[in-house]
DNA sequence: CTGAAAGCGCTTACAG
DNA sequence: CTGAAAGCGCTTACAG
């Protein structure tokens, strides 16, 4: 393979001059610059990434650590991933996708071997065992998902409490006074899915403030269980007029459940969910929903990470950024009957 | 950061001896081996990936090139991706995920800079502009998806013609004599999604052989269009008793469509799809379906790729492997109403 | 404005 | 069984 020595020889200059001509890190005479550029073109030269990394301690690669739990909603993950990879590329970075179960071990291995310039952690848990490793690593990191202790870390997440309040407010404004909230299953919470209770707690609080009833449930994460759960909740509260869904599987299952009960939305019952627009489009879901902003969160995390990388090891002014929820209105909330 | 020189010093040996003790590439006395191992442990040594890549021309990284088309079924992609990343890790490789629109350009850039040892191409099109670049690259590759000209490449794909025949046979065996096939939209075909017609052509052929009627349609790839499409097809052929779906969005939309028409499955109409088990589980789809085998295809491609990498540049006995379709029975095919 | 040389951290013939 | 040295392909002080 052609290396910078070949380019230098072809251009009739030294290797250092060829290197500087390429990097632009010192002034080069126009003629030399042109000769080098020509040689690069003629020979089809591309710098060797490993050699460059060794010389500069920079790889132009970031690692993306996901947690892919078989009972969580895998398809939603892809939107976060593409947000990260696309934005990283725009900023000049490639992305190493890490899907190992042992995220902490993977982070340590990749950090120690200097394969990447930084880390993006997805689906961060309340108590996330990757965080101590990240804090001890020489490379910076950025998180998608708010951990219990975000100290010293750049964190991006949807403002789930605000989302919970917004969902209740929206229903209240339309005249609803008794609601059912369907969250993710309890084991998701126990595993560290703090967003579940962050949304639910605030929704409950807000309902109390407004003096309305909120029945708070955990639904299963897959079929057919969640369908049965939904039927159970509806059976238990026939006077409830609105449904809040913080559970993608429940949203996907709801059309069938309503149809089987002979209910129309929003005629018989109003619904508001929390999932991505893509998800809604793909799965025929015509429910208004708080967008999960997966793409934006991924992009923001990468931007913060690249800023940290460029800044170098410094007392980084780490910050937590909670993105304000936005409801995408699909007309599934109406005034309740009677 | 601690390097192999530090290890050597701590162990009281030369750097080369330390290196050999780690790689096991030559016999080392037990005492020396133990001292080196101890030094590695004490110092927390991990080899520098860039330096190793420079010295060995091996990175232990593979690149995974996806084509993420906004109107194709993105969530399904994740299963292919995880099949690749997980199997790669098992075999000692990390995975660079590449999502750029310009796949050919990305392949060239990554190949020329020697960032990876090989490539896995996902969602390969009939005429795929990444293939000429791959054929010219010094690193080997493996494809998921059968291109028009697979010559010299390791290719893995579902046997779509066999799947088409199987779907028709299954319906025929249950007594159905008039079927509707809903494929992906035409622009997916035009863009190179050959699997669409590979399945459809064989299904049509098989229907002819069996002397039964097959109405062949392309449905939209998203909501609400595909729902309208389905209603249109059902309106046009009231005597059809079976539905074949080679279109994920159609499968996701069908429950609502049937409910709105007051039809039950399989009481009023039989259905067989083609999508992954995960997809079915997540989206409440109780239709029997040919599994798309995403995870397996991803894993097989990685295995073939790693074999090529290990074999080194040789006259690789490239081969095309079409995985036999398997129908996962969910009881959605019954005898048609008398 | 340019060149010669050192160095990044490994691996691996070569020599003993 | 072990060591000294060259080399992988870059970048970047140092010197002019």
Quick one: overall form of chain A?
elongated
Compute the number of structural domains of chain A: 3
Radius of gyration of chain A: 26 Å
Instruction: Provide the succession of SSEs of chain A.
Output: HHHHEHEHEHEEHEHHEHEHEHEHEE
Mean pLDDT of chain A: 92
Number of H/I helices of chain A:
14
* Unreliable spans of chain A: none
CATH-defined fold name of the largest domain in chain A:
Rossmann fold
Description:
The structure is a homodimer of 338-residue chains. By secondary structure, chain A is α/β, with parallel strands linked by helices. Chain A folds into 3 domains: 4-47, lambda repressor-like DNA-binding domains (434 Repressor (Amino-terminal Domain)); 61-158 and 294-323, Response regulator (Rossmann fold), CATH 3.40.50; 160-292, Rossmann fold, CATH 3.40.50.2300. Helices cover 47% and strands 16% of the residues of chain A. Chain A contains 14 helices and 12 strands. The first copy, chain A, has helices spanning 4-11, 15-23, 30-43, 49-56, 74-90, 103-112, 130-136, 160-173, 186-190, 194-210, 225-236, 248-260, 277-282, 294-311; strands spanning 61-65, 94-98, 118-121, 141-144, 154-158, 178-183, 213-218, 242-245, 270-274, 288-290, 320-323, 327-328. In chain A, the strands form 2 sheets. Chain A has a 6-stranded parallel sheet, sandwiched between helices. A 6-stranded mixed sheet of chain A has the order 7-6-8-9-10-12, sandwiched between helices. In chain A, helix 5 links the parallel strand 1 and strand 2 (94-98). Chain A is elongated and about 90 Å long. The termini of chain A are far apart. At the A-B interface, helix 4, helix 5, strand 2, helix 6 and helix 12 of A face helix 4, helix 5, strand 2, helix 6 and helix 12 of B. Chain B binds a DNA duplex (16 and 16 nucleotides) through residues 1, 3-5, 13-17, 19-20, 23, 25-29, 32, 47-48, 50-57.
């Amino acid at each position: 393979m052609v290396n910078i020595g070949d380019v230098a020889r072809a251009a009739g200059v030294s290797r250092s001059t060829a290197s500087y001509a390429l990097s632009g890190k010192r002034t080069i005479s126009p003629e030399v610059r042109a000769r080098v550029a020509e040689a690069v073109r003629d020979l089809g030269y591309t710098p060797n990434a490993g050699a460059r990394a060794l010389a500069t301690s920079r790889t132009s690669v970031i690692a993306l650590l996901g947690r892919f739990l078989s009972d969580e909603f895998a398809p939603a993950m892809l939107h976060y991933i593409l947000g990260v990879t696309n934005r990283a590329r725009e900023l000049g970075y490639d992305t190493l996708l890490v899907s190992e179960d042992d995220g902490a071990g993977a982070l340590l291995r990749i950090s120690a071997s200097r394969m990447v310039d930084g880390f993006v952690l997805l689906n961060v848990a309340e108590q996330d065992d990757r965080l101590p490793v990240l804090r001890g690593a020489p490379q910076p990191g950025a998180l998608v998902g708010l951990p219990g202790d975000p100290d010293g870390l750049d964190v991006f997440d949807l403002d789930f409490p605000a989302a919970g309040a917004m969902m209740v407010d929206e229903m209240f404004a339309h005249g609803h006074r008794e609601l059912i909230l369907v969250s993710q299953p309890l084991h998701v919470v126990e595993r560290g899915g703090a967003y579940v209770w962050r949304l639910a707690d605030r929704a409950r609080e807000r309902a109390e403030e407004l003096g309305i009833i909120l029945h708070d449930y955990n639904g299963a994460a897959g079929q057919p269980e969640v369908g049965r759960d939904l039927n159970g909740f509806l059976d238990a509260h026939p006077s409830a007029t609105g449904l809040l869904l913080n559970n993608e599987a429940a949203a996907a299952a709801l059309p069938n459940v309503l149809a089987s009960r002979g209910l129309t939305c929003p005629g018989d019952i109003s619904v508001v969910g929390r999932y991505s627009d893509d998800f809604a489009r793909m799965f025929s879901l015509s429910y208004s929903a708080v967008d999960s902003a997966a793409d934006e969160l991924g992009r923001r995390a990468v931007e913060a990470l690249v800023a940290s990388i460029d800044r170098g090891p410094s007392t980084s002014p780490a910050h937590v950024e909670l993105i304000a929820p936005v409801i995408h209105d699909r007309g599934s909330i109406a005034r309740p009957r009677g």
